[in-house]
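Why do we care about 3D structure at all? Because function follows from shape, and shape follows, mostly, from sequence. That is the central idea of this module. The next example makes it concrete: a single protein chain, its amino acid sequence, and then its structure expressed as tokens.
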Amino acid sequence: MAITKKTVKDIDLKGKRVVMRVDFNVPMDNGEVQDDTRIRKALPTIKYILNGGAKYIILMSHLGDPAKDIPKAKEKAEKAGKSFDEEKWVEAKHKLAPVAEYLSKLIGKEVKVAPACFGAETDKLVESLNDGDILMLENTRFHKEEKAKDEQTRQIMAKEIAKYGDVFVNDAFGSAHRAHASTETIAHFLPAVAGFLMEKELEFIEDKVVRSPEKPFVAIIGGAKVSSKIGVIENLMEKVDKLIIGGGMSYTFFKSMGYEVGDSLCEDDQLDVAKTILEKAKSKGVEFLLPVDIKIADKFDPNADTKIVESDKIPAGWQGLDIGPKTIELYNNALKGAKTVFWNGPVGVFEWDKFAEGTLSIAKTLAELSDATTVIGGGDSVSAVNKAGLADKMTHISTGGGASMELVEGKALPGVVALTDK
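And the structure:
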């Protein structure tokens, strides 16, 4: 089943003024783009719009969250006894001019930059645009209206931006779970369609994972906390044949089973939830795989002393930081023959080489599943696949950690709901 929303392919772009929401929330260091993945992912839609004869494209994105980031940076500087230059900080971390310059090089065409998302100066700039021009609005989160809780306030900003266009294209899947002025509210004032990236994300996550996964379907859920993945696990339980659990959340399950977990990460307030999940898996006939052996460390340190123990034999003062060799074999065997695999969350502290073996081994096995649809659900799993150098061997790597998780959880994403139905 294809996606149920209209895309850029469903509209006539000739002579149209296009306002496009992208996700250019990329890591920056001293005003330099550190990872251009999200910028590159938007290129197919931008090029398609230009080649389709659109009058111009106005791009908008957030870049960090100044309201949250500035107070934190200020506090950090004060604690370190350093002075804090707010203007310089904003310039280096939150302004989109360096991103526009980077995009210019990739696309081979000048990308102009507006001083704000709306206002007299931006109005003038928009009026001066020529056919085929690209203009990038400044960071959407410089405006308090962007994230306002009440829709009327968001509408003030959305209406101002909407007057610059004839059509709204949303290609920012990573922000689709937010009901913001630039992601959802603007879609009430212009015909709204999905870009190619948004279409691809919905096709793989909403359709091939959530709605109609090909069986056998195996999900790997890792990461630190059970509490952040309850909805995901419960919704997947209705669809999967096997559920593989790894990472810090394993120890909450172990403790709920009566095992000693030493100093391992454990959410004591989630023990009953863990028990309920185990019972539910049993009643549904879902194969629920937990580690059978663990690589433990005497401290949380990349150079800690380590040993391999069985899952129920973690001694006091030690903590689990990766899955053991028997578990690696168990998990890899469980993945063989799968037709659909969804992976979110590492199974160990993969950032440290000593504890990366389990996570990298799973990435390698997924890369070898030539007959399976392998979907990587954003966040640290993407970093792990990149670290393994196997990103090009996966069927789909999501650009939106939070958005992909909410979709898998069965939640409606405001930025998607607002798009025009086919």
